[in-house]
Write a structure and sequence with these properties.
Length: 149
């Protein structure tokens, strides 16, 4: 980490909510990363990369929804393993501070992350029409909101 701009990092930490700043220096992060590298043997030498991804999500330099892709590309592992690791990070490490992370993510990226890592998109059904129902003439701009509730 010799090429890290320590002043810039300190500036980012200074504006974080105290709970997030504390999390960055908490020893439970290193214990968590160690447990991940033991669980996923292919990560045995990847701890520093995992730490950087965690740091970047906390600092809102990486969108939390992009974490699985970042993990996959930086660690050279498959998407399913990366998704499992991202879920573990969110559910075990970020759980106490997820609301603060959501606020930062919204400010930085203009969108809120879900309560966990995004799931694969599900198939959506087209709206169902009730047989025999006649719709009023409105020039073809009809939206059936009943199927939305």
């Amino acid at each position: 980490m010799s090429n890290l701009d320590w002043e810039k990092l300190q500036d980012k930490i200074d504006v974080l909510p105290q709970s997030l700043a504390n999390l960055l220096t908490d020893s439970k992060i290193s214990a968590f990363i160690e447990s991940l590298t033991q669980k996923y043997i292919q990560l045995s030498v990847q701890g520093p990369y995992i730490a950087r991804i965690i740091r970047d999500v906390i600092l809102a330099d990486i969108y939390i929804g992009d974490m699985p892709a970042q993990i996959s590309s930086k660690l050279g592992i498959d998407q399913n393993t990366a998704l499992g690791i991202a879920r573990a990070i969110v559910s075990q490490l970020f759980a106490p501070v997820i609301e603060e992370i959501k606020k930062l993510q919204l400010q930085k990226f203009g969108k809120l992350p879900g309560s966990s890592v995004p799931q694969p998109p599900q198939q959506t059904r087209p709206p169902q029409r009730i047989a025999g129902e006649e719709l009023p003439e409105t020039g073809g701009n009809i939206i059936d909101l009943r199927s939305k509730f």
